[in-house]
Amino acid sequence: MEAIVDLSGKCIVVTGAGQGIGRATAELCLRLGANVAAIDLKSDGLREIEATAGADRILAADGSITDPAFVQGVIERCCSQWGGVDGLVNNAGITRPAMIARMTLQQWQEVIDVHLTGSFHCLQAVGLRMIDQAEAGRPGGAIVNVSSDAGRKGTIGQLNYGTAKAGVLGMTMSAALEWARYGIRVNTVAFGVVETPMTEVVRGEIPRHLSGAHPAPALEHPSGGRQANRLPAVGCGVVHHRAAPRHQWRCPHGRLSPPIDTRAVLNPEPRRPPQPVWGRSLVSPLLVIARSRRECALATVACLR
Predict the structure, then answer these.
(1) What gap in Å lies between CA 201 and CA 139, rounded to an integer?
(2) Domain spans in the chain, listed from the N-terminal domain onward
(3) Bridge partners of 35?
(4) Taking residues 272-287, what's their average pLDDT?
(5) Where are the alpha helices (DSSP H) in 139-279?
(6) What's the mean pLDDT when you consider all of the chain?
(7) Active-site positions?
């Protein structure tokens, strides 16, 4: 495959790496030369990756990102084994679908705890380490928070999920602005519905009389086959927040440019690999198309550049 990014010798932390988009992302990082700290609650997928890549290239950590002590321990092990951390993909997630009237507080809280609070634990632990590295003369680093189109437009039967993913967008924008002076890039990738074990749960829970209310294209299976999709779905958008030092955020008229331009990511064009554009000094979006697990991984890893 074409090396879209050279990750040789870098340490990348990927959460939710045991299956789905997270696993595809971890495997792609490994193929591009990175050492990977793979985090997931389920150890089976992690062991499979470890058996393929070798214990010297991957740190398989089974545990919950809702536990800040666990997250901190993984980051410390990364730094001890590979000398630092260069990237984070905040991908771990769960679903607890229910209509608003029937959603329990537990269903609400479990999703918020993983998608929002857990992502914060990882972002903070990795970001603080990157700041220490920057102050020691090693600036830079990239954080990619995985959001969803549900966080931009809402979704039926997943108020908890849509709210959490909208929060991830806000977390990304704030961190991008705050850590730009250290050379740390914080970006969000927002995907539509791609068939994974997690999205299969949602497909079975949304009432039939609602699933046909929003026509959608065929859903692409991770293996490459296509199936009919009864859920609202679009392609994929990458909201790309490449923050520059504040003194560079100037438009030709001398005023601060708007920090975020959240243009719509709907695109009816045929599926094609992501085509990122680099070198932007303003906080601005990068839009791509992706409807398979592989393409989602490509878009995610591209932001680690």
Answers:
(1) 41
(2) 11-302
(3) 11
(4) 36
(5) 150-153, 159-179, 197-205, 208-211
(6) 75
(7) 161
Beta strands in 171-263 (DSSP E): 185-191, 219-220, 226-227, 236-239
Alpha helices in 33-190 (DSSP H): 43-53, 68-82, 105-112, 119-135, 150-153, 159-179
Please give the radius of gyration of the chain, using alpha carbons only, rounded to the nearest integer: 19
CA 228 vs CA 209, 212, 290, 294: distances in Å: 16, 12, 17, 19
Q: What are phi and psi of 247, to 5 degrees?
A: -70, -10
Query: What is the pairing mode between strands 142-148 and 236-239?
Result: unpaired
CB 61 within 8 A of CB 42: no
Q: What is the largest CA-CA distance in the chain?
A: 58
Looking at residue 179, its pLDDT comes to: 93
Kindly report, residue by residue over 35-68, the tens digit of the pLDDT: 999 999 989 999 999 999 988 999 999 999 999 9
Angle at 36 between CA 34 and CA 41, to 5 degrees: 160
Model confidence over 217-263: pLDDT tens digits? 333 444 444 433 322 222 333 444 333 333 222 323 333 333 333 23
For residue 192, what pLDDT is reported?
A: 74
Number of H helices, E strands in the chain: 10, 9
Residue 187 confidence (pLDDT) above 50: yes
Identify the CATH number of the domain defined by range 11-302. Answer: 3.40.50.720
